[in-house]
Amino acid sequence: MLEIRFHGRGGQGTVIASILMAKAFFQAGYCVQSFPLFGVERRGAPVEAYLRLARQKILVRTNVYTPDHVVVLDRTLIQSVDVTRGLKPGGWVLINAPAVPEPLDAFAGFRLALVDATQIALRHRLGTRTHPIVNTAMMGAFARVLGDPPLEPIARAIEEEVPTKRKENVAAAREAFDAVVTIGLIEAAARATA
After folding, report:
1. Distance from the CA of 63 to the CA of which of 3, 6, 7, 182 falls in 20 to 30 A?
2. Which pLDDT value is given to residue 44?
3. Which of 4, 21, 10 is nearest to 139 (CA)?
4. Is the pLDDT of residue 42 over 70?
């Protein structure tokens, strides 16, 4: 069983991303669970959503406390939220960022991947210039990082569930799939000894 935690801000489509990924994994033959965790329900507030998937029936009915992987839709959350909280050693942290975030030591023991989903969303006119909707781009990037599900179930889930700009959202997912950069395992910085 794999457990994934999504971090984003209200209005970015974080919960929708977890639901659409669940649909894509279901179409790819997995059993799935997807559910959100809301604090203050307002635009810009931190939001978490969870996805659980397995090839057999899932009997667990709890929150996700020790995810295998983490998806971060808004890199500014790294300064205020411990996005690696409970993350299993060697797990992927996929971040919507144009460059490696600092301090890199914060990701020691985890595998890091980056995609500039904001620019991809802007190119496809998803959301507005001040509030781009990055969820479908992050879905494509995550599929590439994880190696599953294939892009076709992701495209189908978007086409079936997204109410507007379906072609643009599918194109954003495909572009992010190709654009994601995997950094790999981040080693702890060598510490000076006295």
Report:
1. 182
2. 72
3. 21
4. no
Of all residues in the chain, the percent with pLDDT exceeding 90 is 76
Q: How many Å apart are CA 95 and CA 71, to the nearest integer?
A: 6
Backbone angles phi, psi at 38, to 5 degrees: -105, 145
Tell me, yes or no, whether 193 lies in a domain.
Answer: no
Q: Give the per-residue pLDDT at 102.
A: 86
Which of 49, 61, 55 is CA-nearest to residue 28? 55
Residues forming a β-bridge with 31: 54
Specify burial of residue 29 (Cβ count, 10 A radius: 0-12, 13-18, 19+).
exposed
Q: What does the pLDDT look like over 125-160, one tens digit per residue?
A: 999 998 899 999 999 999 999 999 999 999 999 999
Kindly state whether residue 194 falls inside one of the protein's structural domains.
Answer: no
Residue 192 lies in a domain: no
CATH of the domain at 55: 3.40.920.10
The model scores a pTM over 0.85: yes
